[in-house]
Design brief:
The complex is a heterodimer of chains A (about 325) and B (about 160). Chain A contains eleven helices and no strands. Chain A has about 325 residues and is mostly helical. Classes of the chains: A mainly alpha (about 325), B alpha/beta (about 160).
Amino acid sequence: MIDTLQNLTWILVFPGLLFTLAVGLLASWLVRKVSALVQYRVGPPVYQPVADVMKLMGKEILVPQEAQRTVFVLAPLVGFSGVLLLATVLWLATAGIVYVGDIVVAMYLMVLPSLALILGSSASGSPHAAVGASREMKLVLSYELPLVLAFLVVIIKTAGRIAPGEQLSLAALSQHAPVLSVSGLLAFLVALLCVQAKLGFVPFDMAESETEVAGGVLIEYSGALLAVWKLMQALMLVALPLFLVVVFLGGIQASGWSLVWGIGKYVLVLVLVILIKNTNPRVRIDQAMRFFWFYGGTLLAAAVLLAMIGNYYGLPWL
Amino acid sequence: MHTLQLWALKKSIWVFHVNTGACNNCDIEIVNLLTPKFDVERFGIKLVGSPRHADALLVTGGGTRQAAKRLQEVYRQTAKPCVVFCTGACACGMGIFEKGYHMAGPIDSLIRAVDPQAIIAYVPGCPPKPQAIIMGVVKALAALQPEREYATERVPQTAYADPG
């Protein structure tokens, strides 16, 4: 009984739903504020994301006539709960709770929001949403392979230093910082761009591009359902950079200065993502695919080779 | 409306821009609102791509016969509550095209044909200055407020969303 209560608190209050949501809304404010500063503007006040979500909650929910109602309404909830679980898994790893295989679970949970977006937009029966869904699908196909290869580099790099049974555990991986080697740095750079695409940020925002397909995947959503999508995106702003921090940058340790340093790492990754967002134009879907498969793939194949050579000859910096 | 809901609505206005046959002059002034000089994102105002996300329709142009049906359809698709802004002389009263054979406007009568209770604000000018458009938004928000509590102290006079 006590255990169940503890787990529920873990998922729903701290560090699950409430805490992650608060951090996520703050992070989405940071996205808009830093973008504004880059463009020499003042930008919105801190409470802006909260006001946006509250306003959407009070608005009318429109469901198109041709829509598949059940899927249309359930898709945002599926995506939201997927990201919530992902965040909880990552916080578990941050707290040092070893659970073998959670890197695989996390990788599956990371696909769930994109899948929910594709489902929801296909169910809405709008041609613009269909274009958005097909672009999102191609984007998922492009960035999944480089992301898995990037994790492969991390697992090879940490091979000798982790007990053989715990190689697929995020908590064990987070004790090491593979980014401090050549192959790890290459893998981190490509994984950062994959996260950019997962967040749906420029240059990989073709699924939502507002000028051509008018909001794309989200075009038919309004009111509280749109609010759930916005909350899901806020949660992703916490979960995905945190994932990079845990896997590549040595995680967040919950004690004294190393906690501050850990939060600093998270903010660093977030600001890096925002700066990439603000200094690049949107690419076409075929350009994104070529980028991830040919350039990303080649770079990562080289990184895998380097990591294996480094392991074989005992060169930790390679 | 609840106080909290009203506060949220006032602090976060997402705008969908509808051109019903404008000469593009008003449209340039609207884009001007997003530039560093005016930066309406300070007040939570944002341009969105779909009427389903919008709280305000920023209508420019006099409402030609081609555009009238589309405007009404866009208004029906907008999630309520929403405000309609008639931006520019043409949108307010068809301007110099008043006697034109191709006109179905003005905008307010087109919107009223769909929803007699619609909240409509007028921003005259050819084109209206960006300051005037911001003023129009402030006055429209003041109209949502109960009689005694105005949206800001900067608008001491009674503000009506619809002078007609």
